[in-house]
Amino acid sequence: MTRHGGETHDDDEGRVPQRRRRRWPVRIALGLLAAYVAWALFGAWSRFGQFDPELGSAAREYAGNQLSPAEYPWYFPTLTLHVMTASVALALVFFQMWPWLRRTHPRVHRSVGRIYIFAGVYPAVISALVVQVFWPFSVATMFSQVVPLLLWFSVTTYGYVLRRRGHVEEHRRWMLRSFGLTCLVLVELAIDPLIQLAIYTQFHTRLESNRDIYLQVKDSTENWVGLMLVILVVEGFLEYERIRSARRQPSAASRESTVR
């Protein structure tokens, strides 16, 4: 409650339920994110959990040009390392985006953040770059995957440096960008049916019924469209927060002047 010259107002009492109401959309969004992450990890590890060196990317298998483990012995271990470490980063995104954990247990938040970066993002980026440089599926897909990887590494590093320098708010903004790039794979899974439907309309015409070409066009398009969606959503959210914060400042200043 707010006091003005001995009088009491119920502004604060009405503000508490309002805050609670605002938390429900966040809780629902985090719950959906956790379920989606669990589903994506289950799908990935139902394949790579077999630790079968005959396996590789699903695209290579579908196109019929899977790499031989005898000729390329390091391909499967490097790809598996990427899947493992990317899974760590993806699993920890939920905890890093959880407001309650960040507010009530900041030390845990920082510790999980270090694991996210050094056991998740960095090894996932490096192993994926090795796969793309030495065993690329195609030039088109290589560029569409290398660019997001470099962005993921750069944005995460900058966010970490900002935290080390004590710029907490800017650190949060850049780590939200990192989390968005971590969730890029979830966006690609979501838009995959639509991209397939759009590209497949030309499978028997301009793509000449060639599975290899079809997958190159489909995967590279999916990567670029997914990246653009992530950038638009994250930057739109950050801009919304900036505008909302700017609107709050004049109202807070007017309340202070009224109290005085």
TrEMBL record:
The chain crosses the membrane at residues 24-45, 74-95, 115-137, 143-162, 174-203, 223-240. It comes from the Bacteria. Pfam families: DUF2306. Keywords: Membrane, Transmembrane, Transmembrane helix. The keyword Transmembrane helix applies. This is DUF2306 domain-containing protein. It comes from Phytohabitans suffuscus.
